[in-house]
Amino acid sequence: MNKFLLRPEIYYGSNAIDYINQLKGKKACIVTDKFMVDLGFLDRVTKILDDKGITYKVFSEVEPDPSRETVLKGLNHIIEQKPDTLIAIGGGSPIDAAKAIMYFCIQTKEKLVEKELIKKPWFIAIPTTSGTGSEVTAYSVITDKKTNVKIPLVEDIMIPDVAILDYELTKTMPPSVTADTGMDILTHAIEAYVSPKASDFTNIYAEKAIEIVFDYLIKAYNDGEDIEARGKLHNASCMAGVAFSNSSLGINHSLAHSLGSAFKLPHGRSNAIFLPYVVSFNAGLRDSKIHNEEVAKKYHAIAKRIGLPASTLLEGVISIIEGMKLLNKTVNIPITIKEFGVEKEAFQKQLLDMAQSAYQDICTSGNAIAVTTEDLISILEEAYE
Protein backbone atom coordinates (compact mmCIF):
# COMPACT_ATOMS: atom_id res chain seq x y z
CA MET A 1 0.00 0.00 0.00
CA ASN A 2 1.35 3.40 -1.02
CA LYS A 3 0.77 6.81 0.57
CA PHE A 4 0.50 10.38 -0.71
CA LEU A 5 0.21 13.06 1.96
CA LEU A 6 -1.22 16.48 1.15
CA ARG A 7 -0.45 19.03 3.85
CA PRO A 8 -0.40 21.84 4.88
CA GLU A 9 -3.05 24.44 4.07
CA ILE A 10 -1.41 26.75 1.53
CA TYR A 11 -2.14 30.48 1.26
CA TYR A 12 -0.44 32.14 -1.69
CA GLY A 13 -0.19 35.41 -3.60
CA SER A 14 0.87 38.94 -2.82
CA ASN A 15 -0.08 39.83 0.77
CA ALA A 16 -0.87 36.21 1.64
CA ILE A 17 0.69 37.01 4.98
CA ASP A 18 -2.67 38.56 5.89
CA TYR A 19 -3.65 35.01 6.89
CA ILE A 20 -2.14 35.89 10.29
CA ASN A 21 -5.26 37.98 10.88
CA GLN A 22 -7.22 34.71 11.17
CA LEU A 23 -5.24 33.45 14.18
CA LYS A 24 -7.26 32.80 17.29
CA GLY A 25 -4.43 31.98 19.69
CA LYS A 26 -3.14 34.05 22.59
CA LYS A 27 0.60 33.41 22.59
CA ALA A 28 3.07 32.93 19.73
CA CYS A 29 6.73 32.05 19.30
CA ILE A 30 8.48 33.33 16.18
CA VAL A 31 11.53 31.40 14.93
CA THR A 32 13.76 33.34 12.57
CA ASP A 33 17.30 34.66 12.11
CA LYS A 34 19.01 38.00 12.71
CA PHE A 35 18.95 38.80 9.00
CA MET A 36 15.14 38.72 8.94
CA VAL A 37 15.03 40.96 12.03
CA ASP A 38 17.47 43.47 10.56
CA LEU A 39 15.58 43.63 7.25
CA GLY A 40 12.34 44.35 9.06
CA PHE A 41 10.57 41.29 7.65
CA LEU A 42 9.23 40.43 11.09
CA ASP A 43 7.46 43.77 11.33
CA ARG A 44 4.68 42.64 8.97
CA VAL A 45 3.99 39.66 11.23
CA THR A 46 4.40 41.36 14.61
CA LYS A 47 2.20 44.32 13.64
CA ILE A 48 -0.70 41.94 12.98
CA LEU A 49 -0.03 40.09 16.24
CA ASP A 50 0.07 43.40 18.14
CA ASP A 51 -3.19 44.52 16.57
CA LYS A 52 -4.84 41.23 17.57
CA GLY A 53 -3.50 41.37 21.11
CA ILE A 54 -1.47 38.16 20.68
CA THR A 55 1.66 38.17 22.83
CA TYR A 56 4.84 36.81 21.29
CA LYS A 57 8.52 36.18 21.78
CA VAL A 58 11.12 36.03 19.03
CA PHE A 59 13.78 33.35 18.86
CA SER A 60 16.22 34.83 16.31
CA GLU A 61 19.37 32.82 17.03
CA VAL A 62 19.06 30.55 13.97
CA GLU A 63 22.25 30.47 11.92
CA PRO A 64 22.80 29.18 8.37
CA ASP A 65 22.78 25.36 8.51
CA PRO A 66 21.21 25.36 12.00
CA SER A 67 23.01 23.32 14.63
CA ARG A 68 21.68 20.84 17.16
CA GLU A 69 22.62 23.29 19.89
CA THR A 70 20.46 26.01 18.32
CA VAL A 71 17.53 23.62 17.99
CA LEU A 72 17.82 22.65 21.66
CA LYS A 73 17.89 26.34 22.65
CA GLY A 74 14.74 26.82 20.63
CA LEU A 75 13.13 23.81 22.31
CA ASN A 76 13.84 25.31 25.73
CA HIS A 77 12.36 28.56 24.46
CA ILE A 78 9.14 26.73 23.55
CA ILE A 79 9.02 24.87 26.87
CA GLU A 80 9.39 28.10 28.83
CA GLN A 81 6.90 30.10 26.80
CA LYS A 82 4.28 27.39 26.06
CA PRO A 83 2.94 29.10 22.90
CA ASP A 84 -0.21 27.98 21.13
CA THR A 85 1.25 29.17 17.79
CA LEU A 86 4.69 28.61 16.28
CA ILE A 87 5.63 30.86 13.35
CA ALA A 88 8.77 30.24 11.28
CA ILE A 89 9.79 33.01 8.89
CA GLY A 90 12.85 33.15 6.67
CA GLY A 91 14.76 30.92 4.31
CA GLY A 92 15.32 27.21 4.69
CA SER A 93 17.38 27.52 7.88
CA PRO A 94 14.76 29.14 10.16
CA ILE A 95 12.01 26.86 8.82
CA ASP A 96 14.20 23.75 9.21
CA ALA A 97 15.12 24.85 12.72
CA ALA A 98 11.47 25.35 13.66
CA LYS A 99 10.60 21.93 12.22
CA ALA A 100 13.41 20.30 14.18
CA ILE A 101 12.16 22.06 17.31
CA MET A 102 8.73 20.61 16.58
CA TYR A 103 10.35 17.20 16.03
CA PHE A 104 12.02 17.22 19.43
CA CYS A 105 8.83 18.54 21.04
CA ILE A 106 7.06 15.44 19.78
CA GLN A 107 9.96 13.11 20.62
CA THR A 108 9.68 14.22 24.24
CA LYS A 109 5.93 14.71 24.03
CA GLU A 110 4.82 12.15 26.58
CA LYS A 111 7.03 13.45 29.37
CA LEU A 112 6.33 17.07 28.54
CA VAL A 113 2.58 16.61 28.27
CA GLU A 114 2.49 14.61 31.54
CA LYS A 115 4.15 17.54 33.24
CA GLU A 116 1.87 19.97 31.39
CA LEU A 117 4.91 21.71 29.94
CA ILE A 118 3.78 21.95 26.31
CA LYS A 119 1.06 21.15 23.82
CA LYS A 120 1.64 20.95 20.07
CA PRO A 121 1.42 24.54 18.78
CA TRP A 122 -0.32 25.52 15.52
CA PHE A 123 2.64 25.63 13.14
CA ILE A 124 2.89 28.29 10.40
CA ALA A 125 5.80 28.47 7.92
CA ILE A 126 6.47 31.63 5.92
CA PRO A 127 9.32 31.17 3.40
CA THR A 128 11.10 34.30 2.18
CA THR A 129 13.20 32.45 -0.41
CA SER A 130 12.03 30.17 -3.21
CA GLY A 131 13.97 26.94 -3.12
CA THR A 132 13.87 24.63 -0.16
CA GLY A 133 10.17 23.78 -0.17
CA SER A 134 10.67 23.25 3.55
CA GLU A 135 7.27 24.76 4.29
CA VAL A 136 5.51 21.63 2.95
CA THR A 137 7.94 18.79 3.61
CA ALA A 138 8.50 16.20 6.31
CA TYR A 139 12.26 16.85 6.12
CA SER A 140 14.57 19.01 8.20
CA VAL A 141 18.35 19.20 8.04
CA ILE A 142 20.40 20.21 11.06
CA THR A 143 24.17 20.20 11.45
CA ASP A 144 26.38 18.57 14.04
CA LYS A 145 29.00 21.31 14.38
CA LYS A 146 31.44 19.00 16.18
CA THR A 147 31.62 16.46 13.37
CA ASN A 148 30.59 18.90 10.61
CA VAL A 149 27.95 16.41 9.44
CA LYS A 150 24.48 17.35 8.20
CA ILE A 151 21.72 15.30 9.86
CA PRO A 152 18.47 14.95 7.89
CA LEU A 153 15.37 14.34 10.02
CA VAL A 154 12.23 12.82 8.52
CA GLU A 155 8.90 12.81 10.35
CA ASP A 156 5.40 13.72 9.15
CA ILE A 157 4.73 15.63 12.37
CA MET A 158 7.22 18.29 11.20
CA ILE A 159 5.02 19.32 8.28
CA PRO A 160 3.58 22.76 9.12
CA ASP A 161 -0.16 23.20 9.53
CA VAL A 162 -0.12 26.29 7.30
CA ALA A 163 2.28 27.50 4.60
CA ILE A 164 2.14 31.15 3.55
CA LEU A 165 3.59 31.89 0.11
CA ASP A 166 3.70 35.68 0.03
CA TYR A 167 5.36 36.69 -3.23
CA GLU A 168 6.21 40.18 -1.97
CA LEU A 169 8.61 38.71 0.60
CA THR A 170 10.83 37.26 -2.17
CA LYS A 171 11.51 40.50 -4.04
CA THR A 172 14.56 41.38 -1.94
CA MET A 173 16.43 38.18 -2.83
CA PRO A 174 19.67 39.17 -4.61
CA PRO A 175 20.39 37.55 -7.99
CA SER A 176 22.89 35.04 -6.54
CA VAL A 177 20.34 33.76 -4.00
CA THR A 178 17.66 33.66 -6.70
CA ALA A 179 19.98 31.49 -8.78
CA ASP A 180 20.96 29.17 -5.93
CA THR A 181 17.43 28.64 -4.69
CA GLY A 182 16.05 28.25 -8.20
CA MET A 183 18.47 25.43 -8.93
CA ASP A 184 17.53 23.89 -5.59
CA ILE A 185 13.93 23.75 -6.84
CA LEU A 186 15.09 22.04 -10.02
CA THR A 187 17.13 19.48 -8.08
CA HIS A 188 14.22 18.66 -5.78
CA ALA A 189 11.86 18.22 -8.69
CA ILE A 190 14.17 16.11 -10.87
CA GLU A 191 15.23 13.82 -8.04
CA ALA A 192 11.58 13.36 -7.07
CA TYR A 193 10.68 12.58 -10.69
CA VAL A 194 13.28 9.82 -11.13
CA SER A 195 12.87 8.42 -7.61
CA PRO A 196 11.90 4.74 -7.36
CA LYS A 197 9.06 5.98 -5.14
CA ALA A 198 7.73 8.41 -7.75
CA SER A 199 4.05 8.08 -8.64
CA ASP A 200 1.40 9.72 -10.82
CA PHE A 201 0.71 12.03 -7.90
CA THR A 202 4.30 13.17 -7.29
CA ASN A 203 5.05 13.45 -11.01
CA ILE A 204 2.34 16.08 -11.48
CA TYR A 205 4.04 18.39 -9.00
CA ALA A 206 7.60 17.59 -10.14
CA GLU A 207 6.87 18.12 -13.83
CA LYS A 208 5.24 21.51 -13.29
CA ALA A 209 8.06 22.66 -11.01
CA ILE A 210 10.67 21.71 -13.64
CA GLU A 211 8.78 23.60 -16.35
CA ILE A 212 8.52 26.72 -14.19
CA VAL A 213 12.24 26.78 -13.35
CA PHE A 214 13.24 26.59 -17.01
CA ASP A 215 10.62 29.22 -17.95
CA TYR A 216 11.04 31.72 -15.12
CA LEU A 217 14.38 31.41 -13.29
CA ILE A 218 16.33 33.58 -15.73
CA LYS A 219 13.54 36.19 -15.70
CA ALA A 220 13.59 36.41 -11.91
CA TYR A 221 17.40 36.43 -11.92
CA ASN A 222 17.53 39.34 -14.37
CA ASP A 223 14.70 41.33 -12.76
CA GLY A 224 13.99 40.80 -9.09
CA GLU A 225 10.93 43.06 -9.33
CA ASP A 226 9.24 40.73 -11.83
CA ILE A 227 6.48 39.63 -9.47
CA GLU A 228 5.08 37.10 -11.96
CA ALA A 229 8.42 35.29 -12.17
CA ARG A 230 8.89 35.56 -8.39
CA GLY A 231 5.43 34.14 -7.78
CA LYS A 232 5.90 31.28 -10.24
CA LEU A 233 9.19 30.24 -8.60
CA HIS A 234 7.68 30.51 -5.13
CA ASN A 235 4.87 28.19 -6.22
CA ALA A 236 7.34 25.84 -7.92
CA SER A 237 9.41 25.57 -4.76
CA CYS A 238 6.30 24.48 -2.88
CA MET A 239 5.30 22.01 -5.63
CA ALA A 240 8.74 20.43 -5.71
CA GLY A 241 8.58 20.14 -1.92
CA VAL A 242 5.30 18.25 -2.14
CA ALA A 243 6.83 15.97 -4.80
CA PHE A 244 10.02 14.97 -2.99
CA SER A 245 8.36 14.78 0.43
CA ASN A 246 6.10 12.08 -1.01
CA SER A 247 8.77 10.29 -3.06
CA SER A 248 12.43 10.84 -2.19
CA LEU A 249 15.62 12.70 -2.93
CA GLY A 250 18.81 11.03 -4.14
CA ILE A 251 22.57 11.26 -4.33
CA ASN A 252 22.51 14.77 -5.78
CA HIS A 253 21.46 15.95 -2.33
CA SER A 254 23.76 13.54 -0.53
CA LEU A 255 26.75 14.89 -2.46
CA ALA A 256 25.63 18.48 -1.96
CA HIS A 257 25.34 17.89 1.79
CA SER A 258 28.87 16.47 1.98
CA LEU A 259 30.45 19.10 -0.28
CA GLY A 260 28.67 21.92 1.54
CA SER A 261 29.80 20.63 4.91
CA ALA A 262 33.40 20.21 3.81
CA PHE A 263 33.85 23.56 2.08
CA LYS A 264 31.03 25.77 3.42
CA LEU A 265 29.42 26.13 0.01
CA PRO A 266 25.77 27.22 -0.41
CA HIS A 267 23.42 24.25 -0.61
CA GLY A 268 21.64 25.36 -3.79
CA ARG A 269 24.91 25.95 -5.62
CA SER A 270 26.26 22.60 -4.49
CA ASN A 271 23.11 20.94 -5.83
CA ALA A 272 23.37 22.84 -9.11
CA ILE A 273 26.92 21.80 -9.77
CA PHE A 274 26.20 18.08 -9.30
CA LEU A 275 23.01 17.94 -11.40
CA PRO A 276 24.56 17.23 -14.83
CA TYR A 277 26.97 14.65 -13.43
CA VAL A 278 24.31 12.83 -11.41
CA VAL A 279 21.96 12.70 -14.42
CA SER A 280 24.77 11.23 -16.50
CA PHE A 281 25.55 8.64 -13.83
CA ASN A 282 21.94 7.65 -13.15
CA ALA A 283 21.18 7.29 -16.87
CA GLY A 284 24.31 5.17 -17.33
CA LEU A 285 25.69 7.50 -19.99
CA ARG A 286 29.03 5.98 -21.02
CA ASP A 287 30.80 5.73 -24.37
CA SER A 288 27.94 7.64 -26.03
CA LYS A 289 25.50 4.93 -24.99
CA ILE A 290 22.71 4.63 -22.43
CA HIS A 291 23.12 1.74 -19.98
CA ASN A 292 20.22 2.42 -17.58
CA GLU A 293 17.25 2.68 -19.92
CA GLU A 294 14.48 2.85 -17.33
CA VAL A 295 16.00 5.87 -15.61
CA ALA A 296 17.08 7.43 -18.89
CA LYS A 297 13.46 7.30 -20.12
CA LYS A 298 12.47 9.61 -17.27
CA TYR A 299 15.17 12.16 -18.12
CA HIS A 300 14.16 11.85 -21.78
CA ALA A 301 10.56 12.64 -20.81
CA ILE A 302 11.71 15.76 -18.95
CA ALA A 303 13.68 16.93 -22.00
CA LYS A 304 10.63 16.49 -24.25
CA ARG A 305 8.37 18.25 -21.79
CA ILE A 306 10.49 21.42 -21.71
CA GLY A 307 11.05 21.44 -25.47
CA LEU A 308 14.65 20.22 -25.70
CA PRO A 309 15.83 17.99 -28.59
CA ALA A 310 14.83 14.42 -27.71
CA SER A 311 14.33 12.41 -30.90
CA THR A 312 16.17 9.49 -29.26
CA LEU A 313 16.76 8.37 -25.70
CA LEU A 314 20.43 9.36 -25.94
CA GLU A 315 19.65 12.78 -27.40
CA GLY A 316 17.10 13.47 -24.65
CA VAL A 317 19.55 12.64 -21.84
CA ILE A 318 22.33 14.70 -23.41
CA SER A 319 19.90 17.58 -23.98
CA ILE A 320 18.82 17.74 -20.36
CA ILE A 321 22.46 17.59 -19.19
CA GLU A 322 23.49 20.42 -21.51
CA GLY A 323 20.35 22.36 -20.62
CA MET A 324 21.29 22.22 -16.94
CA LYS A 325 24.83 23.36 -17.66
CA LEU A 326 23.56 26.24 -19.78
CA LEU A 327 21.09 27.29 -17.10
CA ASN A 328 23.90 27.26 -14.52
CA LYS A 329 26.13 29.39 -16.75
CA THR A 330 23.32 31.86 -17.50
CA VAL A 331 22.74 32.55 -13.79
CA ASN A 332 26.48 32.62 -13.07
CA ILE A 333 26.79 29.32 -11.21
CA PRO A 334 30.07 27.48 -11.83
CA ILE A 335 29.78 24.09 -13.49
CA THR A 336 32.76 22.52 -11.69
CA ILE A 337 33.84 22.39 -8.06
CA LYS A 338 37.21 23.77 -9.13
CA GLU A 339 35.50 26.95 -10.36
CA PHE A 340 34.17 27.48 -6.83
CA GLY A 341 37.77 28.11 -5.79
CA VAL A 342 38.28 24.78 -4.03
CA GLU A 343 41.96 23.88 -4.22
CA LYS A 344 42.80 20.46 -5.67
CA GLU A 345 44.90 19.41 -2.68
CA ALA A 346 42.16 20.34 -0.20
CA PHE A 347 39.59 18.54 -2.36
CA GLN A 348 41.64 15.35 -2.57
CA LYS A 349 42.20 15.44 1.18
CA GLN A 350 38.42 15.52 1.79
CA LEU A 351 37.44 13.22 -1.10
CA LEU A 352 37.06 9.92 0.74
CA ASP A 353 35.35 11.51 3.73
CA MET A 354 32.89 13.31 1.45
CA ALA A 355 32.09 10.12 -0.44
CA GLN A 356 31.58 8.13 2.74
CA SER A 357 29.43 10.88 4.25
CA ALA A 358 27.32 11.01 1.08
CA TYR A 359 26.97 7.23 1.05
CA GLN A 360 25.64 7.27 4.61
CA ASP A 361 23.30 10.20 3.92
CA ILE A 362 19.60 9.39 4.27
CA CYS A 363 18.95 10.68 0.73
CA THR A 364 21.20 8.06 -0.88
CA SER A 365 18.74 5.23 -0.31
CA GLY A 366 16.18 7.11 -2.41
CA ASN A 367 18.39 7.50 -5.47
CA ALA A 368 17.17 6.35 -8.88
CA ILE A 369 19.73 3.50 -8.84
CA ALA A 370 21.87 1.88 -6.17
CA VAL A 371 25.36 3.32 -5.65
CA THR A 372 28.66 2.43 -4.01
CA THR A 373 31.18 4.66 -2.30
CA GLU A 374 33.40 4.21 -5.35
CA ASP A 375 30.60 5.56 -7.56
CA LEU A 376 30.34 8.66 -5.40
CA ILE A 377 34.10 9.19 -5.50
CA SER A 378 33.93 9.02 -9.28
CA ILE A 379 31.11 11.59 -9.48
CA LEU A 380 32.94 13.92 -7.10
CA GLU A 381 36.13 13.69 -9.16
CA GLU A 382 34.25 14.31 -12.40
CA ALA A 383 32.43 17.29 -10.90
CA TYR A 384 35.71 18.76 -9.64
CA GLU A 385 37.33 19.09 -13.07
Q: Describe it for me?
A:
It is a single chain. The protein is an alpha/beta fold. The protein has two domains: 9-170, 3-Layer(aba) Sandwich (Rossmann fold); 175-384, Dehydroquinate synthase-like, alpha domain (Up-down Bundle), CATH 1.20.1090. Helix content is 54%, strand content 12%. The chain contains 14 helices and ten strands. The strands form three sheets. A six-stranded parallel beta sheet has the order 1-8-5-4-2-3, sandwiched between helices. It has a two-stranded antiparallel sheet with strand order 6-7. A two-stranded antiparallel sheet has the order 9-10. Strand 6 (139-144) and strand 7 form a beta hairpin. Helix 6 (175-194) runs antiparallel to helix 7 (200-222) and helix 7 runs antiparallel to helix 8. The longest helix has 23 residues, at 200-222. It is globular. The termini are far apart. The model has no long low-confidence stretch (mean pLDDT 93).
